[in-house]
Design brief:
The protein is of the alpha+beta class. The chain has one domain (about 1-100): Protein of unknown function DUF952 (ADP-ribosylation fold, Alpha-Beta Barrel), CATH 3.20.170.20. The chain contains three helices and ten strands.
Length: about 110
């Protein structure tokens, strides 16, 4: 299963430079890296990144993250993937810009 992380451009640049990260400020505060499933990603963008341009969508394989990935009840009583270790560059299968079009982030077609 694929899971997704939304990063601001500077957060993605830092991960590429440092090869690992504890995540965005909210991740550091909460003590884990927040991810979303394909079904949750648009709502996550709408709730936490409204109007922000210059974002990147990172795709990761949930199974490859091992036991450090926990599925926990969060927004709307849905289970969200939370990574209880730093995110490593090698964990990222792909990354691409997440364009803001007419005030809403446009996700790529076919997210699994």
């Amino acid at each position: 299963m694929k899971i997704y992380k939304i990063f601001r451009a500077e957060e993605w640049a830092l991960l590429r430079k440092e090869k690992s990260t504890t995540g965005a400020p909210i991740d550091v505060t909460d003590g884990y890296v927040h991810f979303s499933t394909a079904a949750q990603a648009q709502e996550t963008a709408d709730k936490h990144f409204t109007g922000q341009d210059g974002l990147f969508l990172l795709g990761c394989d949930a199974d490859a993250l091992g036991d450090a990935l926990k599925w926990e009840v969060s927004r709307g009583d849905a289970k969200f993937p939370h990574l209880y270790r730093e995110l490593r560059l090698e964990d990222v299968e792909w990354a691409q810009p997440l364009p803001l079009i007419d005030g809403r982030h446009q996700f790529p077609a076919g997210l699994e």
